[in-house]
Automatic annotation (TrEMBL):
UniProt lineage: Eukaryota, Fungi, Dikarya, Ascomycota, Pezizomycotina
PANTHER family: AMELOGENIN, NACHT DOMAIN-CONTAINING PROTEIN
Alphabetized Gene3D superfamilies for the sequence: P-loop containing nucleotide triphosphate hydrolases
Originating species: Conoideocrella luteorostrata
Name of this chain's protein: Nephrocystin 3-like N-terminal domain-containing protein
Alphabetical keyword list: Repeat
Pfam families assigned: NPHP3_N (PF24883)
Entry keyword Repeat: yes
């Protein structure tokens, strides 16, 4: 062979070697010196919470550029919160990452979140087996995939938003300087996971545990520990939150560890192997027997029970043996490390424990290669089921048998409108007893001369309250004798007497002049009583489904009396409460449906066994006499209570009233026989408003004040009505309005009533007066209360007085009103038919919006039709028909109606029978077209 070819071959060989070295250098030069050839999962901690996933990637790649390396795009990066202030990331790489300024490790000790949906509602936490790694213990050998982080998040979040975590712990049994125990490892796991949940404000989030081998025992142990600790809310929350347990090859009755006992003999960790390893007869160790008993006890405490799924291996696994060089290797004999019996012997049998085989060895039970892996598909299906059910079950555990869940509470609030507590708790609307009064009702006290045989006394009330035989007590009293204050006192006494008892309940309703007229019905009373009963979850769940649905508020508030009574009666009869105290104040105040309510209550009281204890108050009336609720007692106020009441009110007088003046007032009142709290209140208001004070002037004023209530009302009303036509118009509006009117609404209403010729908004504005609190109190303060910028009559008896039409046509009135109800209705239709709000000219919409902004608009659009009782109230000579045409069919219709409607539909919409009758009795083409 000639030397030339050989030289050429040597040259080629040198070139190939150089190229190969270059290629190798390129391959290994990613982050400098190669320290790891195998793909590793890294954890990055202490990332500030305001760092986003994109921010982290930018920082990571910037560090790579600085070190001369290429940016990484395929890191399989995960990003989640580890506390309210910090985040944690994990990523996969063949090489050690650059210095990022954060804490980086591969040990994964403690809790590591691998994924977290933004709106996560369920936790999934995986605990590996003996000597396993928090990531490596779940890593498929064939693909290197960690199913918990690489494909489970995408699959499981289709069912519910989850947070997936893994827990790492050191259990290297050959470590010469460490001593572990199963209970100690479980306590550490419990403490670590509790702390993590507290730090992330998720202490009540449902938990699904995944436990492999020893990891399953740690889960059983930590649950047992949590169930045994009383009084600590963190342990209680953890236990109640625990829902699903997925056990993979868990050695409940021990495992077969081959030569592990020999390997650990004489070492610190010898005991943990002795606690785990089954003997030749496969009998459990003493520790495992104890744990089984404690876990059974723990499981019985959990209601509803844990959902447990046990998977067992169908392939044998090589056991561990110690090599000559001292290292451990799985080169021993094949065996079932955890038998089917051991893996599935939880200690009890029920429908909530399912057992399933997997065609895998012990190590591979929790290592799935891909989303298509059959074993993974089966496990995922189980996880989906558990995740889907977890929230409802755990939410229920945190709801006591009486306490509503958050969703139930939201529904209940919709039913509780208006809030039943507001009226009772507002002392401006419902007075509380003056200190020291009404003590005679519950304490022994010298009986007074005015107590007659039919008078309400202590024995009547105590017998009603405490006896198992008597179901009803009806208290009758004339107006102003303190019935509402009495009822308020009774409710407070009952609440104090039952002292939170779960077997007794107090419900109440106050019929009062300061309520909206539209709510003064028997159905409203029943709704309020039902709502109070259903504060208890046991009764809430007994409500008809329609009342508890998403549309429940509408169906509940539109329900008819018969349906409401049936519901109320059914709730009482459930037996949840042995006694239900029911206080209804002012039965005489309401008209609509009250007779039906009285007769139903009477029928209920007549039952042989009735759980309802009914306390009612009323003025003497035909209704109460006819219904015959028994016994009936009359309220007669002791003189001592009247004295205490006067003293308390005089204490509120300004310093202008000296001691002599106050004594004169008190003596004058007490000299008058048969006085009531109401009469005294009005009397004191009148005295308090005197412009100039002296004892003589006070004495003269007292002499001129009528004794009878109606005479007193007449003198006060006429004094007001004789001063200014606007005072008359304001009082009409207050007395006949369907709900309390605000001062701004009263300004408009009074202008229209006092000036009936107004037909334009601009004219109305020029006639409106300004109502200010001081002026209102000065002119009308004897007869009205100003509460939250709304005017209320001081008492139902005053409203009854003003509802008599003759009182609006006295001789000296500045404005006589023959039909006050119609006068307010006329003001409403005049307002809605203003000529300068036709929708036929440019710019009218803007003007109409100004009208809608006026407070009176909301009232008129809701109640205009309710002030006309029949066809005779519609007067053609007063322009009513023309105004109705403008409102309903003409240029002003868009103020009320979103689109054109037939008169028939309008009559149905407003539920106005008189409007339908008008079509038959009057021939007006403008109104009747398209009927």
């Amino acid at each position: 062979m000639s030397p030339e070819p050989l030289t050429s071959l040597n040259s080629i060989s040198s070139t190939c070697v150089a190229l190969l070295v270059g290629v190798l250098l390129l391959v290994v030069r990613r982050w400098g010196k190669v320290e790891r050839e195998q793909e590793m999962c890294y954890r990055v901690r202490e990332i500030p919470a305001n760092t986003t996933k994109a921010d982290f990637l930018d920082r990571f790649n910037n560090h790579l550029k600085i070190s001369g390396s290429e940016a990484k795009t395929d890191m399989r990066l995960t990003f989640a919160c580890s506390s309210s202030k910090l985040r944690v990331a994990t990523f996969i790489s063949h090489e050690k990452p650059p210095n990022l300024g954060y804490l980086v490790d591969t040990g994964f000790l403690g809790v590591t979140p691998l994924s977290e949906a933004d709106d996560a509602v369920v936790d999934i936490i995986a605990v590996p087996g003996l000597g396993s790694h928090a990531i490596g213990g779940f890593k498929a050998k064939s693909t290197g995939k960690v199913w918990l982080r690489d494909f489970l998040p995408d699959d499981i979040n289709r069912i519910a938003a989850t947070r997936i975590m893994t827990y790492g712990y050191d259990s290297a049994v050959t470590e010469p300087n460490a001593k572990y125990s199963i209970k100690g490892l479980a306590k550490a796991f419990l403490d670590s996971y509790r702390a993590f949940r507290e730090a992330t404000n998720t202490s009540r989030r449902p938990i699904i545990f995944i436990g492999h081998s020893l990891g399953g025992l740690l889960i059983k142990e930590c649950l047992s520990i949590a169930s045994e600790i009383d009084g600590d809310p963190q342990y209680s929350d953890f236990f109640k939150s625990s829902f699903g347990l997925m056990f993979f090859g868990v050695p409940n009755y021990g495992l077969r560890g081959g030569k592990l006992k020999e390997i650990t003999a004489g070492q610190l960790n010898e005991q943990i192997i002795r606690d785990l390893e089954a003997d030749t007869e496969s009998e459990p160790t003493s520790y495992l027997r104890e744990l089984a008993a404690r876990f059974i006890k723990c499981s019985k405490k959990q209601k509803p029970p844990f959902q447990i799924r046990s998977y067992y291996e169908q392939r044998k696994t090589r056991t561990v043996e110690k090599l000559a060089d001292g290292t451990l290797s799985r080169t021993g004999e094949y065996c079932f490390m955890v038998t089917e019996d051991s893996a599935c012997r939880i200690g009890f049998k029920d429908r909530d424990h399912d057992k399933q085989p997997l065609a895998l060895d012990h190590s591979d039970l929790v290592k799935f290669s891909s989303p298509a892996d059959d074993s993974y598909v089966r496990v995922l299906n189980t996880l989906n089921t558990l995740v889907g059910a977890a929230s409802d079950v755990v939410d229920g555990r945190f709801s006591s048998k009486t306490e509503l869940s958050p969703d139930e509470k939201r529904c209940w609030r919709e039913l509780n409108k208006p809030d039943y507590k507001l009226f009772k708790n507002d002392t401006r609307k419902l007075e509380r007893p003056v200190e020291g009064t009404l003590r005679w009702l519950i304490h022994d006290q010298e009986s007074e001369a005015n107590f007659k045989p039919d008078s309400l006394q202590k024995k009547d009330f105590i017998t009603w309250r405490d006896s198992n035989e008597q179901g009803c007590l009806l208290v009758i009293a004339a107006p102003g004798q303190g019935k509402s204050v009495l009822s308020n006192f009774v409710v407070d006494n009952l609440l104090e007497s039952i002292n939170g008892s779960e077997n007794k309940k107090v419900i109440y309703y106050f019929c009062n002049v300061k309520e909206d007229v539209t709510l003064r019905t028997a159905s409203t009373i029943l709704r309020t009583l039902i709502v109070q009963l259903c504060e208890d979850r046991r009764l809430f769940l007994k409500l008809p489904i329609g009342f508890r649905s998403n549309q429940g508020r509408d169906s509940f508030h539109l329900a008819q009396f018969d349906d409401l009574w049936t519901t109320f009666n059914d709730l009482i009869d459930t037996g949840v409460y042995s006694i239900v105290y029911c206080v209804i104040d002012g039965l005489d105040v309401y008209e609509t449906g009250i007779n039906d309510l009285l007769y139903q209550l009477k029928a209920l009281m007549d039952k042989k066994f009735c759980r309802l204890r009914l306390f009612c108050t009323s003025r003497p009336s035909v209704k109460e006499r006819e219904c015959s609720l028994q016994p009936q007692k009359s309220l007669r106020t002791p003189e001592k209570d009247l004295q205490l009441f006067i003293q308390a009110r005089l204490g509120e007088f300004s310093e202008e009233f000296n001691a002599d003046m106050k004594n004169t007032i008190q003596e004058a009142v007490m000299e008058r026989k048969g006085t009531t709290f109401l009469w005294i209140s009005i009397f004191l208001r009148k005295i308090k408003n005197l412009r100039y004070l002296s004892v003589k002037r006070i004495e003269e004023e007292i002499k001129n004040i009528p004794q009878e209530l109606d005479e007193l009302y007449n003198s006060l009303v006429q004094a007001i009505f004789s001063k200014d036509q606007y005072d008359v118009a304001i009082m009409v509006s207050i007395a006949y309005s369907k709900r309390p009117l605000a001062l701004t609404e009263l300004e408009t209403a009074a202008a229209l009533i006092a000036n009936p010729s107004i037909n334009r908004w601009e004219d109305c504005l020029s006639q409106k007066i300004q109502l200010r609190e001081g002026r209102v109190r000065e002119n009308l303060g004897t007869l009205v209360d100003l509460i939250d910028n709304r005017l209320y009559l001081i008492h139902q008896s005053l409203r009854d007085f003003l509802l008599q039409p003759r009182n609006w046509q006295q001789e000296d009135m500045k404005l006589k009103i023959p039909d006050p109800e119609r006068a307010l209705g006329k003001a409403c239709i005049t307002y809605l038919s203003f000529e300068d709000f036709e929708f036929t000219t440019t710019g009218t919409e803007g003007k109409a919006n100004k009208l809608r902004d006026d407070g009176f608009f909301d009232y008129t659009k809701s109640f205009w039709h309710e002030h006309f009782n029949n066809v005779n109230d519609i007067r053609e000579d007063d322009g009513d028909v023309i105004q109705l045409q403008r409102i309903l069919r003409g240029p002003n219709s868009r103020l009320l109606l979103a689109h054109e409607m037939s008169i028939c539909d309008i009559a149905i919409m407003f539920d106005a029978g008189w409007l339908a009758n008008l079509l038959y009795q009057m021939n007006h083409d403008a109104l009747c077209r398209r009927f």
